[in-house]
Amino acid sequence: MSLPAFALAVLLLLLTPGPTNTLLAVAGAARGLKDALPLVGAELAGYLITISTLVFLAAPILAGQPMAALIVKLASTVWVLLLAIRLWSNPPTVDDPGAIGALGVFVTTFLNPKGLVIGLALMPPALTGIPGGFAAPLPYLALFSALVVLVALSWLTFGAKVLSSVAVANPLLIGRVAASFLVLFAASLAGRAIGWI
Predict the structure, then answer these.
(1) How does the record say this protein sits in the membrane (predicted)?
(2) How many Cβ atoms sit within 10 Å of the Cβ of residue 8?
(3) What is the mean pLDDT of each run of 10 residues along the chain (197 residues)?
C-alpha cells in the first residue's frame, strides 16, 4: 500500500468514533484542551505498542490464529464495559476528571481493535532476511504517529469547544451519554467477535 493510500485509510479509521475518541472528547469537555493534552501521548503510546508488536513480532504468528484475535476483541469488550460503568457512576467534571486519565486512555487504545486492523491489514510487515525489509514499516509508523496526534487533537478540541458548555452545566449527562456510547461500542465488538454482526 502506498503512503498516500495508507494515510487516507488510517485517517478515516482514526476519525471514526470509538472508545478512545469518546474518552478524548469527554476529557476535552471536562478538563479543557490544555489540561487534556497529555492524553494524546497516552493514545499514541497505546497504538504504537500494539502496532509495533504486531508488525515486528506477531504478524506471522497471528496469521493462522483466529482465536488470538477473538481473545483480544473480548478483552477489549470487557475493558470498554468497565469504562462505561465508571463513566456512568462517576462522570468526569471540571473539578474532578475522574475516570479519564492517561492510564485509561492508554489501555483503551492498546486494546482498541483499530490497532489490530492497522497493524495486521494496513501496515507493511517488517520482513527479516530481505535487505531493508526490517525498516519497511518505519515511514508508515512515522506517518501514523503524526495522524494519531492530529486526530486526537481534533477530538480533544471538539470536546473542549463543543461539549464543554454541556459538561459544565450537566456533567452527569455527558458521563451518561459517553457511557451509553461505550456500551454500544462494546456490544458491537462482542457481536463481531462471536459472529453476530
Answers:
(1) Multi-pass membrane protein
(2) 13
(3) 85 85 88 93 96 78 68 74 78 60 90 81 66 74 96 94 75 73 75 70
User: DSSP strand E in the chain: where?
Assistant: none
* Closest residue by Cα to residue 100 from 9, 5, 178: 178
The residues, any chain, with a CB within 8 Å of residue 77's CB and separated by 6 or more, are: 186, 189, 190, 193
**What is the C-alpha separation between 162 and 157, in angstroms, rounded?**
8
**Beta-carbon contacts of residue 183 (< 8 Å; ≥ 6 apart):** 80, 81, 84
Crossing angle of helices 171-193 and 66-89, rounded to 10°: 160
Written as nine digits, the cell of 56 is 515486528
d(CA 14, CA 106): 15
Q: Which residue type is seen at 46?
A: G
Distance between CA atoms of residues 74 and 127, nearest Å: 29
* Under 8 Å between Cβ of 108 and 83: yes
- Residue 33, φ and ψ in degrees, nearest 5: -60, -50
Whole-angstrom distance, CA of residue 83 vs CA of residue 92: 12
Dihedral sign from CA coordinates of 176, 181, 182, 187? positive
